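Q: Could you write out the predicted structure for this multi-component system? I'm mainly interested in how the pieces pack against one another.
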Amino acid sequence: MWLSRPFNERSTRLFLLILVLAVTLVTILHLALPPENPLYVSGYTVGLLGKYLCYALLAVAVDLVWGYLGILSLGHGAFFALGGYAMGMYLMRQIGDRGTYGDPVLPDFMVFLNWESLPWYWHGFDMAWFAFLMVLLAPGALALVFGYLAFRSRVTGVYLSIITQAMTFALMLAFFRNEMGFGGNNGLTDFYDILGFDLRSGATRLGLFIASGVALALGYVLCRAIVASKLGRVCVASRDAEARTRFLGYRVERVQLFVFVVSAMLAGVAGALYVPQVGIINPSEFEPLFSIEIVVWVALGGRATLYGAVIGAILVNYAKTVFTGVMPDAWLFALGGLFVVSTVLLPKGIAGVLAYRRKQRNESDTTEVPA
Amino acid sequence: MNLWQSMARRDRVFEFLAPAISPVDVRHGPILYMEDVTVSFDGFRAIDNLNLTIDDGELRCIIGPNGAGKTTMMDIITGKTRPDTGDVWFGSRHDLLTMNEPEIASLGIGRKFQKPTVFEALTVFENLELAMTADKRVIPTLTARLTGDVRDRIEEVLTMIQLADQQAQPAGILSHGQKQWLEIGMLLMQRPRLLLVDEPVAGMTEQEMERTAELLTSLAGKQSVVVVEHDMGFVRSIARTVTVLHQGSVLAEGSMDQVQSDPRVIEVYLGESEEAA
């Protein structure tokens, strides 16, 4: 079975082990320790870590298309945001009549805009299964249409990057408009509960954190399964010599489309788990800058390794949390600096350094054995 | 026989359902048959009344000065260029002039280009695996498993191209000669009936040339091989029959010694090159 293939890999088992240990440790430290203990993990930190895990899943999705397929997407934030909006719409409908205006059906911003009834595309989002399906289908459909047009016309390289950037920018402008019916520049916020659990309670936050960990694990295994399959080798082949791959009889544009859609869906799941943890989704998630930031995480962590993307996403976001607390204005400079440093000094990212050190250690081991 | 009759026949399966073995019919003679082929580009006759037959299992060398039409000839066989007049048949059943490039390739004509293009990030083994004849749609490729048959075939080819020891290494670190062999191996994975090889030893060392000669002669018999080459020493070491092209048509054909003693050949080609040397 192709999906079980990653479990035979040492690196995947090690990754999953570390992830499970980290999530368990945080859960125990949060639940078992009294708040005055120095090792206690606060509810705020749990939420923050859950956010990092969502970013890590997003980075894995970007690494799948960039690292293995050679498609530098500067618009993956759009898929993340679409998944987030699908979740946000569900959470809005869960508010019911508890909103400021007390309308049982219409969200507050619609009442404020004097809308009479729910727009057609808001129907069904009161049902969790429908909303969760949309978390996958909305980004997937956008990726399908966009990818079909782009890959069929053999748009690649820089041009594709620019178009993905334009795509997310256009969506940002569209979602800023009140007439779109997604809350304009305020976005969707003031959520109450998810699946009947109070979003403000510590237990729900912890649950969302664990769910993010599970989603990251599953997403990682799925990506690894694709990468370790023959299809993954076709991806690498088309990344390095597209014409030659076509010549062997592979329909490169279909391979690209398939992987691109899978990646967009994973990004959507990451966005959907992100929204209830930060409590808001607004058009700023569509900002091109955010999509570029994701690429920096992957570049810093190391392309085409998947675990590198996870390391990069968590490290950079941790640095961002620290940095924006100390010197908020300098963060963008620091990010730019990080990107320059990683391209010049760590062309293969942190994962590259890890692999190099492992190789060196192995070599010194083998040279020591005969002596 | 019209379409309906052929579909009603119950003694055979439909062609599109039949297993993908090359259906080329060589019972009545040559595997490749070119007659009176002419191609002009803007009035320049690149191929001029070319007649050429290749027998099944033969190893044939094609030589000729620059501009003699060697590459154009290969382009015609693989469907890349359409001739203005003439016939090109693969076996006695397939008119290559009615087919496009992928159809011709799937019929069992493999072509190796001058510059080797292998997938450098993948291992030698994986390069061969991707080249294997298989269902190449997305989902079957995703769920494809490395069966014993596939592994056996890859190992067979690895032995043939003498890269068994390098099978786990990335193709990027192979030498130029090894890359050429790997590329020939990738063609062999598709079990071609006719191999067209364009300048296989360009840029190779003496040793590599010897091994390439061994490889190509070992392939002949099981499949037909057509080699276009400039290096006379190499041609002498492998060829049984040599065809000399000049200005788009066949100038001489025969064994290397016959060809070399032909005064017309000496005049247009060999003489010049010996003077230069």
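A: Regarding packing and overall arrangement: Residues 202-228 of chain A form the longest helix (27 residues).
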